[in-house]
Structure formats: C-alpha cells, structure tokens
Amino acid sequence: MPYPAPFRPFGVPETNDPDVQDDPKIELENDDLWKTFHKIGTEMVITKTGRRIFPAYKAKISGLDKKSKYILLLDIVPCDDCRYKFHNGKWMVAGKADPEMPKRMYIHPDSPCTGEQWMQKPVSFHKLKLTNNISDKSGAAILNSMHKYQPRIHLVRASDLLRMAYSPNKTFVFEETQFIAVTAYQNEKITQLKIDHNPFAKGFRENGGGRGKK
C-alpha cells in the first residue's frame, strides 16, 4: 500500500535556497538483521510504559548539503486495515482492524542539525518507544496489538520546526522493518532471535519468555 509523505517533496524549489544542492539518500544500517527477522515475521512488544524497538532502527544518511539544516522524523503507520492472529505457526488475518490509535510523529532529538553532522555517523532512533497506552504522555508511538505496522523516516530540509510543512522533504520506507505489534511474543523463532541478538535480553533469558495473552 502507498505511504504518502506528509510534506512537500525535494525538487520543489524554494525562493530562499537556490544554491542548495542535495540528493538525500538513507540506508538502513543493520539491514541484514532486519531481513532475518522479516523472513520469519517481526514482532515488537508494546507495553503500557513503552518498549524500545529491536532490532535497533539505525540509518546512514548521505547526499545532504553540508551547511543546510535538516530535521529527521519517524512515524509508524498501519500496513493495512486488518487485525492478525498467530495460528498453527503462522500469522493470518483475523478480521478488520481496530480503530486507529492517535498518530504521532517522532522528531529525532538532534533536530535540526546540519547535513554535515547528520552524515558523520549512523543515526539511531533508540529512544523511541512503543506503547498501547492511549493516554501516554512520554511521546511513545501508540499502537494496537495484533496489527501490522510500517516505520517511515522523513527528512526535511528546514532550520525551524515551524517551517517543516513548507520545506522540501523526502520519505524513506524499508519494507523489511515492518512488524506486528504484540503484548507477548507469539512466534518462538522470533523470541529466540531477540534473545540471540539483543544484549538487553538477559532478563528474558533468565525468566523465560513465551506466548501470553494478547
């Protein structure tokens, strides 16, 4: 399904930046690990207090104008209008989606930043958390359990958050980062992958982890 960009695309000239030359590109830093999860069917646990994304969402940015300032954002949108269930070892459609949770755009805390600074090293969204708490006040992404989602990165050339809606932007979507939100892991293969690759899964290893109520 299409993932429409919320702002004006790059290539639409602004009167105040005729000399800016950029052709933004973003690569997923840990692409191989994401693809390993994606082949099985990535799951992300959501909690009332918020849980961080794993694999970590890191991006390598290139093609920016070194001196111009950019704002980096991430949002998480539904992939479809379905609710899912895990049955006989696989995910399947279980019905129509629940009413959509409030939309939120996560602004990377380093924004706005110069193109030179953004391109120096991979950019991490490790502070973003996922929750099912509709009253969340921490800025976490609010999601429905047993629904499939797609993270999107938006890069906006702007030096001020108030100018974002009027500034050139580009949206990047990596399909391998799609996931189903759950309150407890459903697929034991995903549980094992998380344990094998996540250095913070020590408590999960010790306490054991398995399927629970959705």
Automatic annotation (TrEMBL):
One of its GO terms (molecular function) is RNA polymerase II cis-regulatory region sequence-specific DNA binding. SMART domains: TBOX. The keyword Cell membrane does not apply. GO terms for cellular component: chromatin; nucleus. InterPro entries: p53-like_TF_DNA-bd_sf, T-box_DNA-bd, T-box_sf, TF_Brachyury, TF_T-box, TF_T-box_CS. It is found in: Nucleus. Its main location: nucleus. This is T-box domain-containing protein.
